[in-house]
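All the exercises in this workshop are built on plain-text protein records. Sequence and backbone structure share a record, each on its own labelled line. The structure tokens are whole numbers drawn from a learned vocabulary of backbone shapes. The record below serves as our worked example for the rest of this section.
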Amino acid sequence: MIGLLTRTTENRNGNGGNGHAPHSTGGVDLQYRPLIDLRQLGKAYKTPAGAFPALKGIDLQIRPGEFVAVVGKSGAGKSTLINMVTGIDRPTSGEVCVGTHAIHKMSEDQIAAWRGQNVGVIFQFFQLLPMLTCAQNVMLPMDFANQYHSPKERRERALYLLEQVGIADHADKPPSAVSGGQRQRVAIARALANDPMFLAADEPTGNLDSRTAHAVFGVFEKLVDEGKTILMVTHDRELASRVGRVVSIADGEIVGDTVRAQPRGESDDV
């Protein structure tokens, strides 16, 4: 088991000093409220032919500890959706609330600070800095967010996370010296560096062979077993079938939202 300490939906610094009042809880414990709450979310891009609606009135709630796969054809709006949730892109209309934060109301600087402390993003092509070692790549988010104050603490945290994803032996190697699957494990460790509220993964296994993809996916499953919330975009229907909940998108709209009848971990195996 990975054994990571996971936070609740409250930011470790309250509202993070972003200048906004917390999203109203209505007197209900945040544990029982959605961690991610999208309301009538719309996104339109300007094109020479006019506005192109990438998302159309999306309503989606994700609770703490869920593992949600977003599936659909290319151009359906999957990556746009994940960019809205992480604050990488801004909605044209509607609301994006994560925990106590109304992301759609924040300034760019506030979103950047919030994302650094609260979101772990994993990309298809790893996005590791080639001039840094694997451990230094994991330490980078801690440096930016000023977490784990001393360099010694940050390195210890990085080595711990690399050990949990099975790549501690390569900590002081550059990314070019390890395989694609190992690089993605480094990227997962980096995403976990600041103990984020949730992980957002955009085609995290899309650049891996099937065997390596299944091994990396196993890391996600262990994280969910220990309470992490994961929102994952994927084209891989086989991997999506192993996720607790599958949200299908077509032409910018949710056309399916299926929860597994038998939660993972309750199989017939003895």
